[in-house]
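Researcher: Sequence recovery benchmark, item below. Answer with residues only.
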């Protein structure tokens, strides 16, 4: 994007940061800069980090700031074109054939493989989005997919285009803001990374977690938000299978607020541990240390 800023898009990093905060997402300067460049340069953005640090929520917040659709593709092992790009509406095609037969008409193959019978999945929907502002395409947990699917994405990431064999190549008039996330369960191919801007989202400082909790859970007072954020920080210092992230801190505060609690003591922590600890082994580890001692140190 050159020669000015398109209407409805943030004009600088500061305005984007403010917009994200208004959408309930506190972005540090590095992340806000990476998102701004992804919007301004029309380049995909790869966000990596531990689970629960806010990668997915960043894309959700960007869509809210731009007031544009969020098109989410959740990746998993074995995902293919039918789930990501398109598939044909076979039921509607069959109905068209039967109606034609009833009229005594004859349909040829080209009559059945037209845009009228196409079911757009997230990639195609992002390419076909008419604007005026770009859609936000979230390709979530790309590390769960396989190498073949990564290669399948290259055309979209590099050229803003997709190919439907029966219809040809379709190119985005308004290229989407594409955000890929990865929990780094495996290394992604260099060819995919070359097509993307990159930002690593680490665990935020305790004070920032406290700010996020207070923003996302308004019923949480300063004292409780501080207790939760510091307790989560201490939990990450233990040898847990799933150390808690920002998402768990927010959920913990929500659980406490839902119970009408205004303090996090050992009894409250034990009752609500399911909001922050996701494995029985982790719960055993924490109970062996003792919630009371953990909270005292927090």
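Model:
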């Amino acid at each position: 994007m050159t020669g000015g800023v398109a209407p409805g898009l943030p004009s600088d990093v500061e305005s984007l940061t403010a917009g994200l905060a208004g959408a309930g997402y506190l972005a540090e300067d590095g992340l806000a800069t990476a998102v701004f460049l992804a919007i301004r340069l029309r380049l995909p953005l790869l966000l990596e980090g531990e689970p629960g640090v806010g990668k997915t929520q960043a894309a959700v917040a960007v869509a809210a700031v731009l007031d544009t659709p969020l098109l989410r593709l959740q990746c998993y092992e074995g995902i293919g074109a039918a789930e990501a790009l398109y598939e044909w509406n076979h039921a509607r095609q069959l109905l068209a054939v039967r109606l034609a037969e009833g009229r005594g008409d004859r349909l040829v193959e080209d009559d059945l493989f037209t845009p009228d019978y196409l079911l757009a999945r997230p990639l195609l929907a992002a390419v076909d989005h008419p604007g005026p502002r770009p859609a936000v395409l979230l390709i979530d947990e790309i590390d769960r997919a396989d190498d073949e699917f990564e290669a399948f994405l290259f055309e979209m990431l590099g050229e803003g285009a997709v190919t439907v064999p029966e219809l040809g190549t379709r190119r985005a008039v308004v290229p989407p803001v594409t955000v890929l996330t990865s929990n780094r369960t495996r290394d992604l191919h260099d060819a995919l990374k070359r097509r993307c801007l990159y930002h690593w989202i680490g665990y935020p400082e305790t004070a920032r977690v406290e700010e996020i909790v207070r923003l996302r859970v308004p019923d949480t007072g300063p004292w409780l938000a501080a207790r939760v954020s510091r307790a989560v920080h201490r939990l990450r210092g233990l040898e847990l299978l799933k150390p808690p992230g920002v998402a768990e801190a927010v959920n913990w505060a929500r659980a406490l607020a839902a119970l009408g609690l205004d303090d996090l003591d050992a009894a409250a922590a034990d009752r609500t541990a399911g909001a922050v600890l996701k494995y029985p082994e982790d719960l055993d580890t924490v109970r062996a240390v003792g919630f009371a001692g953990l909270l005292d140190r927090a």
